């Protein structure tokens, strides 16, 4: 009996081979667990960034208070939790909160490494493009980095305007211009071949 078998967490296509089905179920569950942990990590850094930002905004007179605060916090957290809570990570957490101040707007498809790449992009339209492109196409952090480094956004802008490029990333429209489709296919092939 073949058919689609579903439960709240795992969806798989039932086959006549129980071993293949078991592998599919296990791999799907592992993948789901990793995504859940990744998103919890994103939320942790967002909340750390929010708390740091709020502490800095309490009317402290000294301009260097933010640096002082982060250095002291990093010293304490690193000794308790390790290198993932150093000065650089805490500064990135604060920047992450500043760029993404609404927790509900965070995308569960993206991990902390991808968000760290995105917050380095100063142009909001460019950042939104890579955010949507990564989330909609299930990109890994390495693939997102390749897309950014290959300047996919800039190459697409040469063929179209910003709104059309963003609409393609949002999956609101299919590229009408064959050049864009070729560029998109080329970019996807570059990712899959590396």
List keywords for this structure.
two-stranded antiparallel sheet, mainly alpha, flat, 9 helices, 194 residues, 2 domains, disordered C terminus
**SSE class:** mainly alpha
Shape: flat
Q: What order do the helices and strands follow?
A: EEHHHHHHHHH
Mean pLDDT: 82
Please work out how many helical segments DSSP would assign: 9
- Structurally, the number of domains stands at 2
Q: What's the Cα radius of gyration?
A: 21 Å
Q: What is the count of β-strands? A: 2
Low-confidence stretches: 177-182, 185-194
Distance between the termini: 39 Å
Strand portion: under 5%
Strand order of the largest sheet: 1-2
Largest sheet features: 2 strands, antiparallel
Helix amount: 55-70%
List the helices and strands and how they pair.
Layout lengths: L2 E4 L4 E4 L3 H39 L8 H17 L5 H13 L12 H8 L4 H13 L4 H9 L2 H8 L2 H8 L8 H16 L1
Antiparallel strand pairs: 1-2
Helix pairs in contact: 1-3, 4-5, 5-8, 7-9
What report would you give on this structure?
This protein has 194 residues and is mostly helical. The chain contains nine helices and two strands, in the order ββααααααααα. The chain has helices spanning 18-56, 65-81, 87-99, 112-119, 124-136, 141-149, 152-159, 162-169, 178-193, and strands at 3-6, 11-14. Strands 1-2 form a two-stranded antiparallel sheet. The longest helix is centred in the first third of the chain and has 39 residues, at 18-56. It is flat.
Short structural summary:
By secondary structure, the chain is mainly α. It has helices spanning 18-56, 65-81, 87-99, 112-119, 124-136, 141-149, 152-159, 162-169, 178-193, and strands at 3-6, 11-14.
